[in-house]
Amino acid sequence: MSETISYESLLARIQARDEHSHDVLDPATGDLVGRAPVQDLDALERAIERARAAQPGWAALTDQARRDHLHRAADAVERWAEPLAELLSREQGKPLDGLNARFEVGGCVAWLRAAAETPLPTEVLVDDGATYAEMQYRPIGVVGAITPWNWPMMIAIWQIAPSLRMGNTVVAKPAQSTDLSGLAIAAVLNTTLPADVLTVVTGPGRSIGQALSSHPSIGKIMFTGSTEVGRQIIEASADNITRLTLELGGNDAGIVLPDVDPAAIAEGLFWGAFINTGQTCAALKRLYVHDSVYDAVVENLIAFAASVPMGIGLQEGNLLGPLQNRKQYETVVALVAAAKESGAQIVLGGDPDDAAVGHFYPTTLVTDIDPHNALVVEEQFGPALPIIRYSEVEEAIRLANELDFGLGASVWSSDRAKAQQIAGRLEAGTVWLNSHGGLHPMVPFGGAKQSGYGREFGVEGLKAVSEAQVIVG
Ligand code: NAP
Ligand code: MG
Known about the structure:
Layout: H1 7-14, E1 21-25, E2 32-37, H2 41-60, H3 63-79, H4 81-92, H5 101-117, E3 123-127, E4 132-139, E5 142-146, H6 154-165, E6 169-173, H7 179-189, E7 198-200, H8 205-213, E8 220-224, H9 227-237, E9 243-247, E10 252-256, H10 262-274, E11 284-290, H11 291-306, H12 326-341, E12 345-348, E13 364-367, H13 374-377, E14 384-390, H14 393-401, E15 408-412, H15 416-423, E16 430-433, E17 452-453, H16 458-464, E18 466-472
Parallel strand pairs: 5-6, 5-8, 6-7, 8-9, 10-11, 10-15, 11-14, 13-14, 15-16
Antiparallel strand pairs: 1-2, 3-4, 4-18, 9-17, 12-13
Helix pairs in contact: 1-4, 1-7, 3-5, 4-5, 4-7, 5-6, 8-9, 10-11
The structure holds NADP nicotinamide-adenine-dinucleotide phosphate (NAP) and magnesium ion (MG).
NADP nicotinamide-adenine-dinucleotide phosphate is lined by residues 146-150, 155, 173-176, 204-206, 209-210, 213, 224-226, 229, 232-233, 247-250, 281, 379, 381, 407, 447, 451-452.
């Protein structure tokens, strides 16, 4: 059967067909994007049952056959790339260009292919004549995949691709505010995958997500979202000792040392903080700058930031979009207003148009702010960067480490050895040198402290969706 590849045909595959549904509104314009189904616990039960029934057959395929399936799924995402990017832009808000919708769809392809290509051979542990022991990686069974709304297609792929590669089947639950994106990426994968290997169930996290996390037939939950919901999932999974990978909240610190060239680092600092309009778990969210370069760093950041266009995602040229939902918009409004009231300086932005239809919050830079202001210590998840002045690097390290979060961090310096030495003292799952937030499908990613546990990507990521089995003799 030939497939008609268009935005309309993509939407037709995933739209709700009955009244059990909710309106999806474009966060930039308020226009209706479509209607997403709201499923119930019976639908979840049926999906889990089908995934369970399909799992032994999927696991019985050779590793090579599953790798071929993942490549065919990646080919399908490439064919559907433009309709997927358009939907993502309309529903999530992110622009088509820049590090946005087309980039996210490209990431889906890259991570599918990496999950297909990463070797995970049997490991010989001991072979000394007296003892022979090897480690093999078996499927766990059915994986539940729960995603947030900020990178709704790519994060779904991060969870789905390694799970399938290792012989598990998957039941996925998207965030409700980006249901269509979650349904669409799965629908495209399912143009080539065998039946029931991947199913999406939509509905509220507090019922569908909770039931998925506490279900005895689910062997592993891959969760990306807030620390608060992460805790609820730990509790829900306790009875079944369900395996968990938890990618939780972040409030990443960046430390700028006195030896930087402020003009040269401005672009990297900007995108480290403002990628996806700040709605990125591992975005730079608090910037500590040495007193001797503080004014120059701020000046260069203002100049770069003011040149980056924000607007409706489907209008070419925009590189920043609206916040995805009103709740997030209100969080940013409240935090910046409180910072301003406390005496911090708003040197760019900070003046949203509350009457506008779209959830646009302008690019905002906040200086001379108390290191313990809420805008610094809480995860604001939006386009407002607090820039904190320090005079002793020990103080900056202490401030960077004092929060419960520990996802990413960065050190900015022209002295690599010095930067590396500081990096080793930061409590974070990843520390970048002279950049922030870049991810690679072969480089493990995950949080320290309350930013979660477990690692995704690369060999570590494949092991995380497997049951390690030792064979002795
Ligand atoms: P969220 O509120 O924690 O929701 C995440 C997902 O969990 C959604 O699908 C949600 O469904 C579901 N959920 C809600 N309650 C649940 C429950 N009791 N049991 C099971 N699932 C439940 O997070 P968000 O607001 O979508 O995303 C923003 C957060 O994600 C931020 O904290 C950000 O830092 C974090 N994040 C972390 C990473 C990382 O890699 N570490 C990456 C991206 C985002 P509903 O939408 O239906 O409520
Ligand atoms: Mg939420």
